[in-house]
Specification:
single chain, mainly alpha, two-stranded antiparallel ribbon, about 45% helix, elongated
């Protein structure tokens, strides 16, 4: 993307996760583009639910059943969220 701002008319579609076309460069993008969520096929609600369950330390098998994905995908998402937190500098190891 070239950095052109999303128009006011396009903002509702942008925050719903719809694909928009940049009026500056013509590239198609979503709100997830350029983030660690890029390529994710979960809805925003699904992402929030997954993140919440991971943060609450719900076992992967239970999360998989709730969000309807494989245990392996839950494990990978757990790593992805941890990596994103570390990269943003907002990660702190919790003592158990």
């Amino acid at each position: 993307m070239c950095g052109t701002e999303v128009s006011a008319a396009g903002l509702p579609r942008f925050w719903q996760g719809d694909r928009l076309r940049c009026c500056g460069c013509g590239v198609y993008f979503t709100a997830k583009a350029g983030t660690f969520l890029s390529g994710c096929h979960l809805s925003f609600r699904g992402i929030v639910l997954l993140a919440l369950l991971i943060e609450l330390r719900v076992p992967d098998g239970m999360i998989a059943a709730i969000v309807e994905m494989s245990r392996e995908n839950v494990r990978l998402w757990r790593q992805r969220f941890k990596w994103a937190a570390i990269k943003s500098g907002k990660h702190a190891e919790r003592s158990t």
